[in-house]
Amino acid sequence: MFLRNYPIVAVRLMHLFSSGRRDKLLVAAGVRDGFQLKDLAKPDPRRVRRNLSAIINFHKFREDRLKKYQGYSELTVSMFNGSHH
Question: 37 partner at 20 to 30 Å CA-CA among 47, 62, 75, 84?
């Protein structure tokens, strides 16, 4: 099955490694050495745990901040609309 779909898998892997968004996410999450081919070919358990932990923590941090800023944004809009005294 894998060999029959090899061209599709190869294209997906190439897309994964050329993704600028992925690199920005990893840098924002604190993963300085990025995602490398060896992470798929021969994953190191400590590295996988570190990278996943960084991404999960970044997501939690982002969600927390997003809720706060959405509240501030709604308050600002309501003040401009004159509905908050």
Answer: 62
